[in-house]
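Lab notebook, design round three. We kept the backbone fixed and only want residue identities now. Task for the bench partner: fill in a sequence for the structure below.
Input structure tokens:
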């Protein structure tokens, strides 16, 4: 049952939406196209490195993993970074 929940669109969509920057997440009174343009610009900075047979993978290439990895690296020195959940 737990795997059904964790693989559902509702669960994963919510997690991904909560990982996008707050300024993007909280946009109000904008058209869908405007929101999508801002989202596309933000997504363009996230690497897309699918697994290559015969090579070691850095991560799973899931969007959530890339975001969490970048937030850990960008966290203040000596203090844990705020991660998306």
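Proposed sequence:
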């Amino acid at each position: 049952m737990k795997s059904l929940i964790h693989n559902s669109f509702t669960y994963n969509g919510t997690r991904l939406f909560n990982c996008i920057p707050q300024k993007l997440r909280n946009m109000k009174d904008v058209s869908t196209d405007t929101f999508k343009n801002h989202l596309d610009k933000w997504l363009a900075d996230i690497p897309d490195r699918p697994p290559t047979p015969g090579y070691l993978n850095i991560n799973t290439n899931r969007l959530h993993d890339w975001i969490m990895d970048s937030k850990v690296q960008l966290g203040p020195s000596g203090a844990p970074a705020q991660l998306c959940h």
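Keep this in mind before ordering anything: Residues 74-83 have pLDDT under 50 and may be disordered.
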